[in-house]
Amino acid sequence: MEAPTERSLGIVEPRTEHFEEPLRLACGRDFGPYDLVYETYGALNDDCSNAVLICHALSGHHHAAGYHSEADRKPGWWNACIGPGKPIDTDRFFVVSLNNLGGCHGSTGPASPNPDTGRPWGPDFPPLRVRDWVHSQKRLADRLGIARWAAVIGGSLGGMQAMRWALEYPDMVEHCVVIASAMKLSAQNIAFNEIARHAIQSDPDFSEGRYLERECVPAQGLALARMVGHITYLSDDAMANKFGRDLRSGTLERGDEESVEFQVQSYLRYQGNQFSGSFDANTYILMTRALDYFDLAREYGDDPVAAFARAKCSFLVISFSTDWRFSPQRSREIVDALIAADRPVSYAEIEASEGHDAFLLALPRYRDLFRAYMQRVGGGSQ
Amino acid sequence: MRLDLTHIQRWIEPGSKVLDLGCGDGEFLKQLRDTRQVRGMGLEIDPDNITAAVSRGLDIVEQDMDRGLANFPDQSFDTVVMAHALQAVHYPDRVLDEMLRIGREGIVTFPNFGHWRCRLYLGTRGRMPVSKFMPYSWYDTPNIHFCTVNDFEALCRDKGIRIAAREMVGNTQRRPLLAGAWPNMFAVTAIYRITR
Question: Which residues form the active site (chain A) (predicted)?
Fold first, then answer.
């Protein structure tokens, strides 16, 4: 159970690592130099056996837990699960959380200047695959002196990175935690991403991706993309519980011409605007494409069992009952492949009304199970 | 640990691979791991049990046996154990088939409904037995497929399942008097080691 007074990490500070040597990308290009911005929580132990890597999802970044300043209203995006006494316990683990290459929160991305032209990369930024992130994270691990992760952990797109880690660097991963994820996206899932990209690209301010050079941003398109995405991350029930048909303004009385605004409308608009003010459109396009292109087993003859046979780590897989974007069935496919590949695996489907976004919350069963599993990570109690 | 589990431990080879169907809080798998270096996996559906078993460092998969076991490859375990769950599954016969497809051998334990106390209860009161051991009313019970020792052995015969060993236990460490001679009447819990 949660302690009565929840301890927090307090103020955390991002750091930046510069990488001079180019990275060979899946697309064939050599990319670099580049920067990765990251945060760490907790202390690395003497034999460097307690390091945990957090891989972020589509709209995530390095700031996973704690606060940047006293004035911050909100903590990092996964503060519910990272911190002292929490499932990813910073009293025990040295947690590394980075902003992926191509991101827009400090790591080199489409909004960064292209050294050849001095102008923002924009649409010329190379396309990235999940494996490119994994390889760049490996370099960060080398830089931090981490030869082996006690655990690589991620939800959604982050879970894809965690699985890829287990296959690309099997000797560097002790435990792999895959939450609300999939071995590949379904057609429906790709379709939603395409709507998001289309919304951005059809905004006149998108300017073929060169909006920064023209000092504008496709705010409308990005907001619309986020609104669509946001709906898919919630469940019907979650939206009903949160908003129902409550009105924010106007009435539906007869004899009243005033148009009404539902709470859900204003919420979506707020979410869209918030997002478009803080996220780069080209990064959004790049990351949704990385999601679409990911297919864990493609290079293993489309056989997930053959893919996972490479892994040497133990797995924890978690899904949420009302998640329809990354449904429990997708997680069970991961588990079945792991069972068939004779890998150690634990799996639970958490009853939750919150849809895909449930993975960000500290739901009691989720939190307890996650914490129970983490006890065995990093040479803990057996 | 429950008596039936204490008995079946010795049938598990050290260092072998064991699948426990309905593993509860993982006490048995933990025991096998700690004392016999067994590599185990447990299936369970109760959320609290899953968390408890995972906190013991075990590999536990949330899966309902009634929805099949097709995700487990043929002969991928040395032993498949199902302790006190046979009477609670929808298709006990199919689960037995699956156990012997997945494992080299199976171990099954179940409460013997042919025990004289059950018969006496039903015979004298004319009602479905309720006891400390089987505390549920007929209309609200996880136990939907009670059987007797003789029923189970008849099913094994029909299916061509070989009974490699059997053990009849009572409520205490001591084997109940007469259970060897007349198990269907005197065994409280029946334990079978089965193969194809």
Answer: 156 (nucleophile), 323, 356
- Burial (CB count within 10 angstroms: exposed 0-12, middle 13-18, buried 19+), residue B124: exposed
- Nearest CB among B54, B71, B73 relative to A346 is that of B54
Residue pairs between chains A and B whose CB atoms are closer than 8 Å:
54
Judged against a pLDDT cut of 80, whether residue B151 lies above it is answered with: yes
Pair A42, A94: CB distance under 8 Å:
yes
Contacts of A369 in chain B (CB under 8 A): 47, 50-51, 54
In angstroms, what is the C-alpha Rg of chain B?
Answer: 16
Which 26-55 residues of chain B touch chain A by CB within 8 A? 41, 47, 50-52, 54-55
Element (H, E) at A349: strand A345-350
Q: What does the alpha-carbon distance between residue A206 and residue A204 come to, in Å, rounded to a whole number? A: 5
The rounded mean pLDDT for chain B is 94
Give A261's strand partners.
A249
- pLDDT tens-digit readout, B25-77: 999 999 999 999 999 999 999 999 999 999 999 999 999 999 999 999 999 99
Q: Is A232 helix (H, G, I), strand (E, B) or coil?
A: helix
pLDDT beneath 70, residues of chain A: 1-6, 379-382
Cβ neighbors of A51 (< 8 A, separation 6 or more) are: A44, A93, A94, A95, A96, A141, A144, A146, A148, A149, A150
Nearest to B86 by CA among B24, B26, B44, B147: B147
Chain B CB within 8 Å of residue A342 CB: yes
**Overall residue count recorded for chain A in this entry:** 382
- In a 10 Å sphere around its CB, with 0-12 CB exposed, 13-18 middle and 19+ buried, how is residue A306 labelled? middle
Rounded Cα distance between A167 and A307, Å, is 7
Q: What is the pLDDT of residue B175?
A: 73
User: Cβ distance A171 to A146 under 8 Å?
Assistant: no
Query: What is the tens place of the pLDDT at every residue in A271-312?
Result: 999 999 999 999 999 999 999 999 999 999 999 999 999 999
B 86-125 → A contacts, CB under 8 A: none
